[in-house]
Design a protein that fits this description.
268 residues; mainly alpha; D-Maltodextrin-Binding Protein, domain 2
Length: 268
């Protein structure tokens, strides 16, 4: 059947899966727990306020009092409360969570594009689909993050040569293709497309990203921002910690949001 188009459809699908004894979402510990929360924040927060992080830095908004942040967080906690996210899985690291999904121990796996490379090495590759986390009204908002390239030290013996090498290495087609196929890292370079021999999950992931890009529907990925748009140092770990506490039941929504505000102030 077709993937869910709205958040209500996603919840209905999860309920049907659980009723059949199928785990709706595979999850894990470390940052894996937070991925659905990041997806929810893309729809409920960043789609409406793409500059939210800069506003938080200025002190104009707070986690505990922001309606959109609260809405996304309540939805995330609700997934755990309904048993769609299983707290018993929090002991898994990324590799174990990935392997659990590829072993058929759950129906859906909220994860970044890097998972696509592992999926394409799996016997299941032709049976794995890709869809965006649905919003309430079915509109597309895809969380996307761009990593940094090679850096050149200002103290390098020959900075000009080092810069020349860094650019040549990163723009070499063979290197870009290998990055896509081995790590699912899609280069944000104008005109680039994955090679013809890229696997089906990488292709599906790339096609979804391009669809969102063409529609102007990419938004920041919460906790994956970089540079001036990122949270203060150490806050990403606090966000991931809050996600685990919400799924385990150690914190309720209010406690988690107040925790983030408190830790933000500590981080300065």
């Amino acid at each position: 059947s077709a993937p869910p188009r709205t958040y209500a459809e996603l919840l209905a699908d999860a309920a049907r899966l659980k009723a059949k004894g199928i785990t709706p979402f595979v999850t894990g510990g470390v940052y894996v727990t937070s991925q659905p929360w990041t997806a929810l924040l893309a729809n409920d927060l960043y789609a409406r306020a793409p500059d939210w992080m800069s506003r938080r830095r200025e002190g104009w908004v707070r986690f505990a009092s922001d309606a959109a942040f609260g809405s996304a967080t309540r939805k995330f906690a609700g997934l755990a409360a309904k048993g769609y996210l299983d707290k018993a899985q929090l002991g898994r690291d990324y590799d174990k969570a990935r392997d659990a999904f590829l072993a058929g121990k759950g129906a859906m796996y909220p994860m970044g594009s890097w998972f696509a490379a592992a999926a394409d090495r799996s016997p299941l590759k032709n049976g794995i689909g890709v869809f965006p986390w649905p919003s309430d009204d079915g509109s597309l908002h895809l969380p996307a993050a761009t990593g940094g390239g090679l850096s050149v030290s200002a103290a390098a013996r020959n900075p000009a040569a080092a810069k020349e090498f860094a650019l040549a290495f990163q723009l070499r087609r063979e290197n870009l293709d290998e990055s896509v196929k081995s790590a699912g890292a899609i280069p944000a370079i104008k005109g680039y497309a994955p090679p013809p021999d890229a696997g089906p999950v990488v292709r599906a992931t790339y096609d979804l990203w391009r669809k969102a890009q063409r529609a102007g529907a990419t938004v920041p990925a919460f906790s994956w921002e970089a540079g001036d748009a990122a949270m203060p140092s150490g806050m990403r770990d606090k966000f991931w910690s809050a996600a685990r506490d919400l799924v385990s039941g150690k914190k309720d929504v209010g406690q988690a949001l107040r925790f983030l505000d408190t830790e933000w102030e500590k981080a300065g």
